Amino acid sequence: MTLRPLTAFRARVPGRRGTGPGAPEARTEPAAKPVTAPAARPAAEPVTAPAARPVTEPVTEPAVERAVEVRRPAPWPLRLLAMACAFVCMVAFAVVLARLTLQPSPASVPFVHTNLHPGRSLREYADQPGLRDAVQQIGGNLLLGVPFGILVPVLAPRSRRLPRVLLLTALVMLAVEFAQGALITGRAFDIDDVILNTTGALAGHLLLGRRLGRAVHARRRRRA
């Protein structure tokens, strides 16, 4: 029994490749590259919101009381005395007004006429050759309205404001003009007379009536 050499036996062993002559060359597979995990992305830094500014409470200034002048009315005996004097003056003025405006004048019938257009009589006064009649007519009507502007603020505390004084004067003078045109011979209604009377009341109120009304019937004002 002949024994085969060990080399021949090794050549037949499956899975083994011979190393001798004539043996096929062993194929060497390239080594597999190690699988490397992708580099992890750097963690994003957390977005921090800007620090909120501390809320400052509004600085409240201490309430300052406004200094308001407080007018005190005159004592009631003086107020009654002033109102009585104003009433007497108003009655006297009414008598004078009635004698000047409500007295018949038959000689003036051919010359008087009703005037409903403001400014017409004033232009007629200005066109006259002499200034005496114009000054007499215009100045007289202005003076008739001055007592209203002075006495009404004292007699009627609620009507001592300028618009009410002018309204009251216009109403009284309108009544006088209507009476002249409808009842008195030689008299006629003239709207320019009402305008001049009201203007006189305005002047009297601005010059003296407003001050007298405040002195007698001053209103108490509250502090703010």
TrEMBL record:
Alphabetized Pfam families for the sequence: VanZ
Keywords for this protein: Membrane, Transmembrane, Transmembrane helix
Location of the region described as Disordered in the Swiss-Prot/TrEMBL record: 1-58
Domain VanZ-like stretches: 91-208
Transmembrane feature ranges: 80-102, 138-156, 165-188, 194-213
Domain of life: Bacteria
Name this polypeptide is given: VanZ family protein
Organism ancestry: Bacteria, Bacillati, Actinomycetota, Actinomycetes, Kitasatosporales
